[in-house]
Design brief:
globular; mainly alpha
Length: about 160
C-alpha cells in the first residue's frame, strides 16, 4: 500500500505477501489468496487496486497461476466497489526504473529509494507489489486524461452521424 501523488514523495503504508503451500490443491490455494486479500482490503481500505496484467510468458503454468490470483484480487476489489487498474510487468519496471527490462534487484533497489526505506522489501514479491502501486500512482493521471480524450472523441464522432 503506497500513498502519494505523481511528482511528490511517496509513502509506504504497508506491504504484505500471501503465501500458499505449493503442494496444496489449487482451489484451496485460491481460497487462501482470497482470504488474505479480503483481510488486507478490510484493514487498509485502499482507494484503488493495481493488478499485474498477465499477457504472455514462456511458462504457461506460471501464467495461469498468476492470472488466477490476479482474478481473485480483481474480484475482491470489485466486491467492494474499488476501481482496479491493470499494468503490465514491463510498464511497472519502466515506470520505476526507467527500463522495461529491469531485473528484480533493480526494481527492489528503486522501490527502496523511491519509498525511502532502510532496506529492500522482502520477499521480492513485496517489492514487486510496491512497484505496481508506485506505477499506478504515477501513470493513473495520464491514463485518465487519455481515457477522457477517447471518450470525448467518441461522443463527437457519434454526434455527426444520423440514422
Amino acid at each position: 500500500m503506497v500513498e502519494g501523488v505523481a511528482g511528490r514523495p511517496l509513502t509506504m503504508l504497508g506491504v504484505g505477501v500471501v503465501r500458499t503451500p505449493a503442494d496444496a490443491d489449487l482451489s484451496h490455494r485460491l481460497l487462501a489468496v482470497e482470504q488474505g486479500i479480503e483481510q488486507w482490503l478490510d484493514e487498509h481500505r485502499p482507494e484503488f487496486v493495481a493488478v499485474e496484467r498477465v499477457f504472455s510468458q514462456h511458462n504457461v503454468r506460471t501464467v495461469m497461476g498468476t492470472a488466477q490470483a490476479s482474478a481473485v484480487a480483481m474480484l475482491c476489489a470489485a466486491r467492494r466497489g474499488i476501481p482496479v487498474a491493470l499494468h503490465t510487468p514491463s510498464e511497472v519496471k519502466a515506470a520505476v526504473t526507467g527500463s522495461g527490462r529491469a531485473d528484480k534487484a533493480q526494481v527492489g533497489a528503486m522501490v527502496t529509494r523511491l519509498l525511502r526505506l532502510a532496506a529492500p522489501p522482502k520477499p521480492a514479491d513485496a517489492a514487486d507489489a510496491l512497484a505496481l502501486a508506485i506505477c499506478h500512482i504515477w501513470r493513473a493521471p495520464a491514463q485518465n486524461r487519455l481515457q477522457q480524450a477517447v471518450a470525448r472523441h467518441a461522443v463527437h464522432a457519434t454526434k455527426g452521424r444520423t440514422a
